[in-house]
Amino acid sequence: MTERDVRSVEHLDLDKYLGLWYEIVRLPLKWEDTHATNITARYSRKENGKIRVDNRSFDNEGHPGQAIAEATPVDGEPGQLKVNFAPKYIRWIPFTSGDYWVLKIDDDYRVALVGTPDHENLWVLARDPHLPEETLDEYLAEARVQGFELDKLIRPVHDGRVVTDDLIEGADGD
């Protein structure tokens, strides 16, 4: 399949999308520990209208981690955003941002399939850390239809631990 075979949703209400999401499954990422646990993403609106992305997890040794990014909606493509994890002072450089396409989302904004048009990145996110298997299967079936290979999916553990602001601040001093 080619990039044009990946289809984002035709309508996305960003205000309904904001809030906390749990990573249920993903394809491997260069920048994320394969054994990371309790992975969350919190999306919030910034004063400039862009979206703040706050990703948190525990690494394989139990240390908390955080990555902050900024997402910008793509004009004319409601289900597409550009996400930039680069430091603020170089975010203006075009190649520092990546695609973030919402490929499927339920009417209540409880479960989302997110991917990139090159088929390299894929996530199933949910508002609850534990998703029924039949729901996960439905979202993975859509990923297959859109050409994603799912043989290397990673399912992070969610054991109830949360990376709080206090843990992040405490990690700086260790």
Automatic annotation (TrEMBL):
Any Gene Ontology biological process: response to stress
Q: Which family does it belong to?
A: Belongs to the calycin superfamily. Lipocalin family.
State the Pfam families in the record. Lipocalin_2
Annotated Lipocalin/cytosolic fatty-acid binding domain ranges read 12-156
Full protein name: Lipocalin family protein
